[in-house]
Design goal:
Growth Hormone, Chain: A; membrane; MFS_trans_sf; mainly alpha; transmembrane; about 525 residues; 17 helices; DHA2 family efflux MFS transporter permease subunit
Length: about 525
Amino acid sequence: MTSTPVPGASPGAPRRAWQALIVLLAGMFMALLDTTIVNVALPSIRTSLDASEATLSWIISGYALAFGLALIPAGRVGDRFGHKWVFFTGLALFTLASLACGLSQNDLQLIIARVVQGLAGGMFVPAVTAVIQLMFPPAVRGKAYAIMGSVIGVSTALGPIVGGLIIEAFGVENGWRLVFWVNLPIGILALIATVFLLPGGVALPQTTQVSRTGVDWLGLVLISAGLVALLVPLIEGQDQGWPLWTVFTLAAGVLLVVAFGAWEVSVAKRDGNPLVPPHLFSHPAFTGGVVLALVYFAAFTSIFFTISILWQAGLGRSALESGLVSIPFAIGTILGASQSDRLAKRLGRTILVVGVALVTIGLIWIWLVMLLTTPGDLTNWHLLPPLFLAGLGSGFFIAPNVSFIVATVDRSEAGGASGVVGVMQRVGSAVGIAVIGSVFFGTLTVTGPGADALATAFTHSATMAMAVSAGFAILALALVFALPRRVAGNGSVPAAEERMTGAGDPIPATRSD
C-alpha cells in the first residue's frame, strides 16, 4: 500500500486508504438510498402488481429484519477472514437482489428479493466502519467519519426526491422498477473498484481478541425463526382476518425467543461465543437502552410509510409530491446530527431527552394536523413545521445514542453491546412497520365512491397509525432516562462502534465477543 498522501489530506493518511474510502462509501450510499427511496414507490407497487397491504409492510419490514439479523455474523466473518471479500460478496448480492426486485412479477417474488437485499446490506455495511477503523490512523479517522456522515446525510435526503422524480418521469408501471435499478450502475462500478482499490486481507490485528469458536449459528437460527414467527401474524393477520394460525404463530415466536435466550445462557456457561452475550443484560440500564432502541426506531421509521401511502393512494398526489414531503425532516436531521456530538459533550443525556421530546412533539403535531384538517385540504405546508421539528430531534438523538447505551456496560463489553443495539434498531424498524401497517390497513374502510370518500378513509387510517407512532415516541421518551447522564471521557466507545447513520441504520461494531 502506497503511503503517498492525498493533497490536502491530513498527514499519515495513505492515498490507498482514501481511495478505498470512496469505494466503501459508494456501497454505503447505495444501501442508505434504498432505505428511503422505496417509501415513495410503495403506492406504485401496490397499483402495478395489485399488491396486498401486507406486501407493502413486508417490503420494508422484511428488508429491515434481514438487514439486522445479518449484522453480527457478517461482522464476525469479516473479523476472521478479512473484510474485503465480505464487502464484495454482500455488495454483489445486493446489486443482484436490486435487479431481481425490479424484475418481480408478483408479491412473493418482490418480498423474497427484498429480503435478500436486506441480508446483503447487513453483510457489507459492517465492513465499511471496520475498514475505516483499521486503515485510518487515529489522527485522521475523524475526517474519514465526517466524510461518511456527509454521504449518509446526502443519500437519505436524496432518496425520496430521486424516487419521486423517477416515478414521475417513467410512470407508475415502470417507475418503481427503476427505483430499484438505480442501484445497478453504482453497484457494478463499486464492485470493479473493490477488486482494485480495497486492500485484501483487512482483518482485525492479531492483538485483538477474535472469536475462536466462530458464529453461534444455532442461536442465529433460533432468533431469526422467533422474530419471523412474531412478524408474520403482525403483518398478515389483519389482511386475513386474524385466523387461529396467527395466534399459534405468535405463541411459537415467543417460545422460540425464550429458547434463544436459554441457548445463549448455555453457550456462555460453556465458555462459548454466544451471538448475544447474556451477561450484558445483567446491567438494567443496558436492558432499558436496548428497549429504547427498539421502541424509538419503531416510532420514527414508520412515519413516511404512513405519509407516502396517504399522500398517493389517499389524496391522489404524485410520487414526487410525496417525496417532497420528507425534505423538512431530512434537513432537520442533517442539522441536528451536525450539532449532536458537540451538544452531547456539553449537555450529556439531556441532548437525547431533547431529541426524543422534539420527535414526540413533532409526531403529536402531525397527528393533530391529520385529525383537524379537512382531508382533501392537506398539503405539504401543513406538515413542514412538525416534520422539521421531528427531523431535528431525530438528528440530535440518532448520532450519539449508541455511545450512551453502550456506556451502561463495561468497556470490555462495548463490542458485543454495540452489536446488540444495532440489531435491535433494525428489529424495531421491522416491528414498527408491521404494527403501523396493521393499524393503517386494519382501520381502512372506504364508505363511498369518489375522491372525497377515499381521502377521508385514508386520512382517518393515517391518523390512527400516526397516533400509534406518537405512542411509541412517548414510551421512548420515558426510556431515555434509563441511560447514564454522561459518557465518560467524551465517549467510552470506539468510533467504529458508535457511529450511526442519519436514516437510523446502524453501522455496527464488527466485534461481538
